[in-house]
Amino acid sequence: MPPIGPGTGLLPVDRPVLPPRAALRTLGPVRLLLIRHGQTSANVGRLLDTAVPGADLTDEGRLQAQDLVGKLEQQPLEAIYVSDLVRTHQTAAPLAAARGLVPVIRPGLREIQAGDFEMAPDDASWEAYLAVLYRWAAGEPEARIPHGENGVEVMTRYDAVVAEIAATHERAAIVSHGAVIRAWSGARARNIDPQFVADTRLGNTAVVVLDGTPAAGWVVRTWADTAPPSI
How many Å is the Cα radius of gyration of the chain? Predict the structure, then answer.
C-alpha cells in the first residue's frame, strides 16, 4: 500500500476531514456525480470486500483513477467526498489534485456491509448478499444482510451525507462503491426503476450523474455515460 498522508494526495482513513466553514446556501438544484472506485485486488478476486480499510487499487485501478481527470474535465466541481475505505481515497486523489480540492471523508458513503458474507468469493454468497438488496428495492427496506446492514440504515447514512452536500454545494463528486451507489440511486431517483438498477451494473470508475435536491428528489441524467430509459 502506498503512503497515505501529507504530500501524497491521499488521506488517512481514521481521521475525518471537515469541509471549510461556509454559510449554508439557499437550497436549489444540485448536481451530484456518484463515482465508483477504481479496480482493487478484491475486485479481481471477486471478493465481497466491504470492511474498513479495504483493498488498495491495482495498477489498473490507478490508471482508471487518473483517467477520471480527463473524463470529468467538463464537469465543474466544488467538492469531492469519499468514504472511509482507502480505495475511494486513492481513486479521488488524481481528480482532487487536478482541481485543488481536499476530499472530505464521510463513513456514511461506505459500501453496504456484507456481514457474514465479508470476503466471500463464491457465487452463493454474492447471490445471497444481492438478494437482500433486491428485497429493499421491492419494498422491504428492513430486510437485513446477516450481521450486516438493512436498507433503512444504509439509506439513512447515505442521505445524511447527500443532505450535507446539498446544503453547501451546487456541484460535487462522491467517490463511493458500486452496490451502495446502485441501491441509493434506485431508491432516490424518480426516473429509474428497480429492474433497471438490477440489470445495469457499474464498472470501476463508472459515473452516475444526478440532478435534484433531497426534498424534491433526483433525476439520473447519465448512468455510466448512457441516458437511462424513460419509465
Answer: 17
